[in-house]
Amino acid sequence: MFAGLLALMSSLLGCSKPVDSAPLPTVSNDDEHNRVYQEGCDLINPYLILHGVEQKRIDSAAKDKIARGIALLGVVTSYSPSNWSAHWICGKGYQALGNSPAACDAFKLAFDIQTKNPDVAREYMFECLNLGRGAEGLRAAKVAVDLNPSDAGLHANLALAYLVSGDAPSALNAVDEALRLDPSDSISKNVRKVTQQIIDGKRPMPKKLGELDG
């Protein structure tokens, strides 16, 4: 079951409904829910931002497809507000469009429902950190680590969340754990380098994730 540009404000139930000339379907039963959910996912999935995968070019036609997909999933979440997967795919759609605030809100809805999936926590965490929402990002990062404590990458993410939250010593502890689990990981090595520079006063504490670039 859980397998035009954006213009309207987010609804309380989740994904906002972008302006689109084509009428949206109605969902009044599970079969219609499943059909519309799949149609929405199919429009967004080709443009997902995934680690290690080159993103497909987002031209005007692609933006229209993603917006339509988000609108369809908005219909789905209006019928089934607990469909965390629909909220999550909405977040990925907004992410592909570069709309970080909307992506963060959609990921939060997914995270509030689905608390046992580290991928959901990680996506929410990154968008929080992109927006400078350190406390929210730290909460999500801790959940992800608790769910999969042997994942070095999640510990490195936790370090980033500590940095944006203003806690460099805790960030150092977290990234050291990441390197203990995977000593060769280049990302963790870079996070540790940056963290040490902050502790040494050689660079300022970041307020957003983007301030750690370079």
* Helical residue percent band: 55-70%
Radius of gyration: 18 Å
What's the overall geometry?
Answer: elongated
Please give the largest β-sheet.
none
Query: Which band does the percent of strand residues land in?
Result: under 5%
Structural category:
mainly alpha
Account of the protein in words:
The protein has 214 residues and is mostly helical. It folds into two domains: 1-113, no CATH class; 115-214, Tetratricopeptide repeat domain (Serine Threonine Protein Phosphatase 5, Tetratricopeptide repeat), CATH 1.25.40. It has nine helices and no strands. The chain has helices at 30-44, 60-79, 84-96, 100-113, 118-130, 134-147, 152-164, 168-181, 186-199. Helix 3 (84-96) packs antiparallel against helix 4 and helix 8 packs antiparallel against helix 9. The model is unreliable at 1-14 (pLDDT under 50).
